[in-house]
Amino acid sequence: MTAMDARGFNIPNKCRSLKYMFFACLILSALVTYVYINNVFHSDRDFLNSISPVASLLRAGRKDVSSIGNINTSQAASEHLHVLQYVPRKKITERPPTTELCDEECQWERRQIRYKADVNQACDLNNEARQITNWAEWVKVNELVLQSFYFSDKHKTIYCEVPKSACTGMKRVFYVMNGGKDKKVLTKMNIHPHSFRSNWRLSNEKSVKKVIERLKTYKSIMIVREPFARAVSGYQDKFDLRPNGFWKDWAKTMLKSEGKDPSLVGTRKDISGHKALVTFEEFITFTTNTSVVNKYRGDQHWIPIAEICFPCQFNYDFIIKIENMKDDVEYTLKRIGEEKLLQYMFEKGGHETKSSNSSSKEAYLSQLTPDLVLAFKDRFVKDYHAFNYSMDVLNLPQR
Q1: How far apart are CA 78 and CA 173, in angstroms?
Q2: How close are the terminal C-alpha atoms of the chain, in Å?
Q3: Taking the model in full, what pTM does it have?
Q4: 337/272 Cα distance (integer angstroms)
Q5: Phi/psi class of residue 30: alpha, beta or left (left: φ > 0; alpha: ψ in -120 to 50)?
Q6: Residues whose CB is less than 8 angstroms from the CB of residue 292 and which lie 6 or more positions away in sequence, other chains included
Q7: Which of 265, 302, 298 lies closest to 376, judged by CA?
Q8: Residue 180 has pLDDT above 90, yes or no
C-alpha cells in the first residue's frame, strides 16, 4: 500500500527511508552525548576523590565543603587521612519528657542518650567525627595510646583509663573481672603497677589482630570529669599533697621548661599550706603549653580526654560522669553483668576521686592570670564541648 500525505499525495519510498534515518541519527546522537557526559562526570569525581582533605568529605557524602579550610592538618599522627575518614555522627534524639514514672535506671538510660548526643554534636561541629579506615596503621601510629586501654575477654568489654577520673576503682573492677583475687593487689599502691604489667592491658597484647578485634567489637567504657576539677585534683595528688621522687623529676622538668631554677622544687607553700613541688600557676603554665608537653611526652594526668580516649573515633557504649558517679557506675556494671563489683569502685584505700567543691576550685583559679585561664580553655575546649561542661567555672573571681 502506497503511503500518502495529508493532502492525498503519494510519498516516495526513498523519502520515507530518509525520514527513518533522520530519527535514528537523533537517537544515536543522544546516546553518544549521554555516554560522553557520564564518562567525564566519573573522571572528574574520581579526580576529586583523590584529593585530600576534600576526598574524605566527598566519600562521606558531605555536600557542604565550605568548612574544608577548618580541618587541622597539623593534628597528631592519628589524624592522618589515610587512616581516618570523616563520617558525620548519627544524630541522637533524646527521649521527650513524659509524665510516666522514671526510676533511677530509666534516668541513667536518658543520661546515656544525652551524653552520647553531646559527644556526637561536638565531634560534628569540629569536623572530627572520624572513622578508622586502616586499623593496622592506626594501632601502629597510636601504640602509646593503647597503654590507656584495659579489657576483659570474658565480658567482651574494654575500658579507657582517664587519670583522676576514678581510674583506681575501675582498674580494681577489671582486675576482679579478669579473675584477680589477691587482696594485696587491690590496695592503693599496688593496683596501678599491677595493671601496667597485666595481660589485660591492651598495649601488652602482642597480637595486632586481637588488639583490633577488641577495639572494634567490645563494649566500651569511659569515665569523664570536668577539666578544671580534674586539673586541680591532679595537681593536689601529684605536686602538692603527696610528692615523691617520680613527681619531683617532673617538677624539675616543669621549672626548666619555664626558665626557672629547678632548686625551687619543694621550697614553696601552695594555698593548701603544704610545701608544693611547683605552684599551681607553674603547673597550669606547663600543661597548657602543647609544644612543651609534646616535647616531654606529657603524662596523661594532664592530657585532655579527647587525646586519650578518642571519643570522636570510638562510639563509647557507656559514658560515666564523675558528677553522677554512683548511679552511672552501678547501671553500667549491671549492663555488663557485674553489678556485684560496685564495691570495688568505692573501696577505701585508693586514690578516691572527689569532685572538687566550688570554693576549692575558685581558690586555685584565683592563682591564675586571665591569659593562663584562656590558655587552659583553649587546651581543654574539646573536653568541655564533648562532655557538655560549662566554662562558667573558669570565670575569674572578683579581686
Answers
A1: 29
A2: 109
A3: 0.73
A4: 42
A5: alpha
A6: 257, 286
A7: 302
A8: yes
